[in-house]
Predict the structure.
Amino acid sequence: MRDEQEEKPLLLDTPAKPLSLIRVVNVSGLRGEARKGVVYVGRGFAGWMAHPLGNPFRPQAGDLPGTCLTLYAEWLSRKKNLDELMRKLWIQTQLGALPLGCWCTDATAGDGSPIICHAQILADMLRDRFVVTTG
């Protein structure tokens, strides 16, 4: 008889170990050492270096809500080196241990929060690509 076990996430291409969900944090107000614990994925601003997966689209007057996210998702889908960039981002997050940082929101991939930030899209992509839940 098989023992009933709790579902445990496994990391692809890495030894199996438990993993918390990939978080997104608002970097507003982070200073000094606190910045070291975040993988910033935004445009260059306020001393933060631009990330290659930062959202190049800015809200424009008259845009419908979500316009920038739609444009961002389309832009990502056309990136020929997306797989490589996502692998690098996964490594930068220390396999999901460090949160992604942007200026928009605090959230966790898959937590049901409304998607209002490109970093949430990236967190979902990391989770979908690199974290597998087995039973």
Summary: Confidence is low (pLDDT under 50) at residues 1-19. Residues 86 and 125 are 8 Å apart (CA to CA). Residues 118-130 form the longest helix (13 residues).
